[in-house]
């Protein structure tokens, strides 16, 4: 049997040990994954981590969606490949330059062009059912690559979300020491409610107010640059903790604010770990607008950066406005400055909107990372195949 015929052997010409071995590996991996998810869910239930358990359920739902996508693509790929369109229509809105521009493009474009030409050559193998002057709307090989793209998109999104959660927990762990200080005698003495202080002498007001904070233009410029040098200081934590306790609990109540933040982080993780219909729609729009010459890659890289910087600036602006309101209400305070948290500080008075912006930015960064990985994977695949 020739080498070309060997590469196209059907199942009836494949050794039974090879078929059984491959099936056994796939089944073992699938069962192991199911057991791991089950044990993880039981662990979250035993620890009463309701938010993390619901996040795990979202991960399972995404895996189920991936299963349906895989099933649909597997059974419909040859039917989709039989849909024929005119060549001039197939040559519109291409993601890579055509062959006529080969000599004019740079090294990066030539790499993408190699992928394009490789895909066009594969299309001819499946285009025999199309009449002259027409080509398949998507080849079977193109559908297979799309299958890989969607699979890695969902898997890497879960991985990115888990990394974000881990970094958030690492950040809040550093606040545990500050929370423990609230039970010490030194803290009670330095923040005695009977002790009077001028507002501008408190560390929170000093850190967030200066001459430029009352000028609108310099206010946001200062908040923009401040996010690179200061995240959450000790005075910020203590002031926000005091404001939360006075708003929701009786003043002087012993309350572990750091644990509350950890639980809130788990609730936010439940939102971030899912791929909503809006994110799937943004992914489809990204594929649609990924046209050669439209600089889609540039905008796809800039938008997440702009969102993250805007969110960071807004958070710093919220703290600064709280400090300014303290100075406007009182000249003298007792104990810790009392901030009044309110939804009015956030965009459209919706704090959850900032979380959705972060979620969207995270997803866009993931799409850009995945695009780079898939591009180089297909480039080396085409290089070795050709």
From TrEMBL:
<dbReference type="Pfam" id="PF03094">
    <property type="entry name" value="Mlo"/>
</dbReference>
<feature type="transmembrane region" description="Helical">
    <location>
        <begin position="353"/>
        <end position="379"/>
    </location>
</feature>
<keyword id="KW-1133">Transmembrane helix</keyword>
<feature type="transmembrane region" description="Helical">
    <location>
        <begin position="59"/>
        <end position="80"/>
    </location>
</feature>
<feature type="transmembrane region" description="Helical">
    <location>
        <begin position="269"/>
        <end position="291"/>
    </location>
</feature>
<keyword id="KW-0611">Plant defense</keyword>
<keyword id="KW-0472">Membrane</keyword>
<feature type="transmembrane region" description="Helical">
    <location>
        <begin position="146"/>
        <end position="167"/>
    </location>
</feature>
<comment type="similarity">
    <text>Belongs to the MLO family.</text>
</comment>
<keyword id="KW-0568">Pathogenesis-related protein</keyword>
<dbReference type="GO" id="GO:0016020">
    <property type="term" value="C:membrane"/>
</dbReference>
<feature type="transmembrane region" description="Helical">
    <location>
        <begin position="17"/>
        <end position="38"/>
    </location>
</feature>
<keyword id="KW-0812">Transmembrane</keyword>
<protein>
    <recommendedName>
        <fullName>MLO-like protein</fullName>
    </recommendedName>
</protein>
<feature type="transmembrane region" description="Helical">
    <location>
        <begin position="297"/>
        <end position="319"/>
    </location>
</feature>
<dbReference type="GO" id="GO:0006952">
    <property type="term" value="P:defense response"/>
</dbReference>
<dbReference type="InterPro" id="IPR004326">
    <property type="entry name" value="Mlo"/>
</dbReference>
